[in-house]
Amino acid sequence: MPRTSKSLEEATPEAIARAGLEIIETRGAAQLSFRTIAAYLQVSHTTVVRRGGGDFSGLLDLLSDHLAANLPEITPGSKPWADATQERFAAWYTLTAAHPGLLLLRGTRPLLGPRLLSRLTEPQVADNILLGLTVTDAFTAYREMYLYTLGCAALVEHWNDKAVKLRTRSALAALDPEEFPLLSTHLTEVTTIITSDEPFRDGLRRLVDSWSATVK
Hints:
The protein is mainly alpha-helical.
């Protein structure tokens, strides 16, 4: 039977992105495909491929760009460089940390969605140049902060912190204290920061300070 026009109208790029993120988070990253999204939305596989990026890399761009729509729009030069930089990357960290499965699927693929480029990459590099960095250094600084942000987002467990802390504490408590005197005896200190955002924010501040110092 032919699909109804209503179903086709519901298979918008935004609907496909929402469905893709829902599938990743509820069924696991390995279950993401054009076919599972098509079944979720009850439309044809061809429709999802055509409207969902064309290939798997395009689909991942669509999903990441759906998240990037929530990034703050900060015009270059409108805020102090350090404030604008930390605001952009902290927002990107929060969005990506909420969807670790997407980062897992991304692997080494670059994320090149237009909203991500227009709300994070382009304005941040422009602000870097306004700060006084050379074009090469402006892109290098952006790349360092971008990779740092994604790495932190991918490796921090936010949504089941009690279980993570319990596993970590149990594993460290089982270590031989003679071989691992620090790890086996400072359980509270380790488990307190294991799911915290503060190490990311502190590290971002250090990156910002180090680049800012290069133009003083």
